[in-house]
Amino acid sequence: MAVISYREALRAAMREELKRDDKVVIMGEEVAQFNGAYKVTEGLLKEFGPKRIVDTPISEAGFIGLGIGASMLGIRPVMELMFWSFSYVAFDQIVNNAGNIRYMSGGLINCPIVIRGPANGGTNVGATHSHTPEAILASHPGIKVVCPATPYDAKGLMKAAIRDNDPVYVMENTILYNDKGEVPDEDYIVPLGVADVKRVGTDLTIVAHGRAVITSLKAAEILEKEHGVSVEVVDLRSIRPLDEETILASVRKTHRALLVEENKPFCGVDAQVAYLIQSKAFDELDAPIHRVSSIDAPQIYCKRMEDLQMPNVERVVAEALKVLA
Amino acid sequence: MAKPAVLTHPESLKRPAGPSEYAKDPVNASLSKAEKIALYTKMARIRHFEQRCIRIYQQGKIGGFLHLYVGQEAVAAGTISLLGKHDHIITGYRDHGHGLMVGMGMNECMAELTGRVTGCSQGKGGSMHYFAPDKNYWGGHGIVGGQAPLGTGLAYAVKYLGLKGSCLAYMGDGAVNQGAVHEAYNLASLWDLPVIFVVENNGYSMGTSQERSTAHPGCLAKRAEGYNMAWDVINGHDVYEVRAKTAIALKRAHEESKPTVLEIFTYRYFGHSMADPDKTYRDKEEIKEYREKKDPVLAFEQELLREKVLTPELSLQINEAAMAEADKAAVFADESPDPTVADITKHIYWEEDNRGPKTTSRGTIIFE
Prior knowledge:
The complex is a heterodimer. Helix content of chain A is 38%, strand content 18%. By secondary structure, chain A is of the alpha/beta class. Chain A folds into 2 domains: 182 residues, 3-Layer(aba) Sandwich (Rossmann fold), CATH 3.40.50; 129 residues, Rossmann fold. In chain A, helix 3 packs parallel to helix 4. Chain B is α/β, with parallel strands linked by helices. Chain B has one domain: Rossmann fold, CATH 3.40.50. In chain B, a hairpin with a 2-residue loop joins strand 5 and strand 6. Chain B is globular and about 65 Å long. The N and C termini of chain B lie far apart (51 Å). The mean pLDDT of chain B is 94. Classes of the chains: A alpha/beta, B alpha/beta.
């Protein structure tokens, strides 16, 4: 078991899958010669050469569409978006073409593509570069979305995504790239649609995904130390498919739920999770479900305010105490 | 009402059709008598299939949009008749002619229009979304120009797999102003991909003539120069010319792995779709002139009569057989069952349709 960073875990996943399957191709802006805008693909060009690791022009609709077309003929492209925010110029390709082709062809055509890159705020870059489109994309049947929070999950989910025969969109987080964690040396995958209880507790369930998991874990510690509350933290890991059973099992145990995500509140992932809990575990609840999301505005540039706009430990603790009141 | 815009097709196309200058081109001269008859038969089948669709549409049995290919038959027929094992095609929503040309049956095509489970996409795609990947036909795409990057990707895959093949990515003249098309052009040329972009220029992007939609009308293929790509223009009323010039682009794709833009001048006799009353943007006289003087199916019939490949009797027989086939398909499409409610949630995900210990997915993926 090695301790490696989230970035290294993603790279290791891609390297292993490149070795395992010669149809896997890495493609995106600056992924090859530049070694990746965020260095996730560093060294891969040297190891695998320009046929497998391909630099594209700044042309998201073009190269994402090209990857989708290639995947229909059996290539397994892993496409990097420098930011998921840039997916918006390729939206027709990502939604209409990748997401619908299997359905509209009555199951005749598959699209085994992975699109990956960071999707997060909190980096002081303003509204255009801070989108978190997991809820938007996961609302389309035909598309799968995962949001790893730890190096272990990043590697396991990335490998599962590459082997999956459907379009899988992996949403990473630049703030997590340097986070370190234990990752097994042997081959493993984290199946899509399996949540993970990152902390066991009895008084309150926090459901989160992506970096909100890390925030929630820190909040859980404070809640335990300073308020004597035992908090369970459920990391969704995968948005679609969604592990409903793990969420419900935790709520049935703690009878209270707080949902934390870095999305804006309207139609966020947690709107779906809240609906799930009230429809399938209504009688289990001892208090209304609460949410902590980003404050509902385009992402503000000012760093001091952005830190307050997004869920942070203080806000999560305060909201948890309201659920527990 | 504003005066309808003048169609910007080349002057040479406005001459009545005559003997093809391309009959002696090797790619046509080498066709056997049977192959020529087969090519004519396919064009006639497209014509009669589409005309039969009009009746079914008017009976209210086809929902949504219906974009007819009548008048454009020589484009699909000429280009697709040249293709081999590793040549792929993809197109926009005016996709019936291409489907019949690659060998899809009239039954599955007609039943898709009426939304039946016996349709090529089991009633999930409709008129704009025909697919037959077993015949290298990758659709059938509804969003203007969105298929251009996909076609470029198919060509990329052909090259990646080390195959001597190509992809013909068709689009209408309305697609050339879409960004995705320009991005596809750039990638195709930058990476030397064996893709042929076929612009089926029927003069109108829906109800907007090129004069009103395009900064440099009459010059769509030439845009290829901006991307360092070869290009050519083709009279799409002459199937021999379509074949002769497409063969050059195919050779470029196969031998040099280089892309081409082909602008094929053609004309549709009906509105953009059946929802278009076709009364505001072009003269009836213009349609009449094309129908009477430039019709690609009649022109090829005349050509083959002159060559003594066809006789009037044989032509009649071919056309009657195509009409009868379309009639039978209409009955099939009418009598086939609908998909079921349970079918609505099939074919969304491969992993879900095949879920087992070896698939990667768990959890809920179809929501209540």
